[in-house]
Each structure stands twice: as structure tokens, then as C-alpha cells.
Amino acid sequence: MTPTRRPLDGFATGTMLALCLCWATQQIAIKAVAADIAPLLQIGLRSAFAAVVLGLVVLRTQGARFWRDGSVRAGLGVGVLFALEFVFVALGLHYTTASHMAVFLYTSPIFAALGLHAWVPGERLKPLQWLGVALAFVGIAVAFLGNRPGSEQAPNVLLGDLLGILAGAAWGMTTVGIRASRLSEAPASKTLFYQMVCAAVVLPLLHGLMGGAAPTWTAPALYSLLFQCVVVALFSYLVWFWLLRRYLATRLSMLSFLTPLFGVGLGVVLLDEPLDGHFVAGAVLVLAGILLVSAAGTLQAWWLRRQAR
């Protein structure tokens, strides 16, 4: 029986705003110390830290029952998708800016909405949401047009942007995998444990296979890694999965479109990243599309109330 999810309330709205700021900052933190610690290794190390902490929590609360709820297969599948998302993020940040990554990574609600439409009853896309999907993909195309073939950085930026979109798709499918499996009712700590274990294994291994450089333990690198371990890898994801168990996923995404806005602003202010007209126009279309997909029900209810007056 599919559990009932609630629409957003004041608590969920405020919590999502805090998560948006946190997630926007993580791209800046990774990019800022990439010369000291490669992004793949940064994310792998923070995942390993979170996996150890969460493993202790889960074993203490569940013990042998950990293996008896039938969630292991789904957990490993979702964990692989989660690891793949951050492989794309880490590699993409070598080529594109944190601002670009923030926008393209957070196309995830579009991919999540498409997947939920296909596999989860009660979350079918409405006509207005289909318009939002189309608008978002038009925005991606417009943003890509800004990287002219004659530009010296265009091939690298295009590759980085493409990796950002692939990361968004992997994140979206991770959300679908959670909602369409036994993980939808599993404790948030257990769901996150599966993902962190997979990322902790895959990312450092890939870093080593690619001949990545050894880390340089500067003070900024340590502060960045501490922030990513505690705030991002533990706190933010636990809260996100807790929200997914209680509120409609498409409604939660209504506010997640603020994350790329925060990310672009922080990238420009803190990293002095440039913005071009094509990217700004495309980003606006992408965000408008995400808003339509996420807020279609709210907009439709508002329109019906207005018509009834």
C-alpha cells in the first residue's frame, strides 16, 4: 500500500530553504580547494566518514534486523546511482564552473518527475508539468549555445556542463529508486548508509585508477572537508530523506529550484566566476521549467480559486 505524502507546510518550506543554501555551498567548497584535494577524492572521503558514522547508528538501532527488511538490493542500486551522480559532479568541476554545475545538477527534479510519472502511482505529470519539462530542456539547449565553437574554453565547458546534466539525471533517478522501492519506508539513516558506502568505495577507487594526485592538507582544504563531511554528507541528506518519507516529492522540488540560484550567486561572489548571456537566459528557462514541474498543483489550485471568485 502506497503511503500518503503531505503537501508542504511551513516547517518543510523553511527546512528546504536551509537545504538549498547548504547544497549550493557544497559546489563552491569543492571547487575552491580542488587544487589541494581532487573533487573525486573530496567526495569519496566525506562519504567514507558519513558511512562509518551512519553504520554505527544503524547497527545500534537495528542490529541483525538490518538485513531482514528486503531493502539491500534496492539500497545497493540506489547507492550506485548516488555514486554515479557524484562521479559526474567531481569530473565536471574540472571543466566547468561551480555556477554552471549548480544549474545543471539541479535539473534533477525534471528527471525525478519523469521517473515518478512512469513508476509511482499518484505522481503523474499534469499538462502544465509537461510544459515545464519542455521549457527546462529548451533552457539547457540555450545555455549550451553560449559555448561557441570558436571559444578556447568551449569544448571543456561543454563537457563539464554535460557531466552536470548527467549528474542531475542520476540524482533524479536516485529519488525515483527510493520512492519506488522498500526504501520509501526505510529509516533515512539506512537509506543514506547504502549511498555513502557505495560512494566511499567507488570514488576513491576511481581516483586511484585515474592516477589522481595525493591530497595537500592545507587549512582551507581541511575546513572544506569538515563542512562537507558533517553538514553536507550527514545533516543535509538525512533531512532530505526524512522529508521524502513525509511529503510529496514533486512538492519538495518546488523550493529546490532556489539551490542553483544560490549556487550561481555564490560562485560569482566567492569565486569570481563569469556569466554570459546565453547561460543566464538558459538558466532562467531551466529554473522556470523546474518551477512549473514542481508547483503545477499549487498553481492550478490558485487559478481555480481565482476563477471561483
From TrEMBL:
Where in this chain does the record put each EamA domain? 16-144, 159-294
Identify the domain of life.
Bacteria
Q: Which residues cross the membrane?
A: 37-59, 71-95, 101-120, 127-146, 158-180, 192-210, 222-243, 252-271, 277-304
User: Which Pfam families did the record assign?
Assistant: EamA
- Print the keywords alphabetically: Membrane, Transmembrane, Transmembrane helix
Localization per record: Membrane
Membrane topology annotation: Multi-pass membrane protein
Q: Listed GO cellular component terms?
A: membrane
Respond yes or no to whether keyword Transmembrane helix is given for this record. yes
The family database entries (InterPro entries) matched by this protein are listed as: AA-Vitamin_Transporters, EamA_dom, EmrE-like
Where does it primarily localize? membrane
Per the record, the similarity remark reads: Belongs to the EamA transporter family.
User: What protein name is recorded for this chain?
Assistant: EamA family transporter
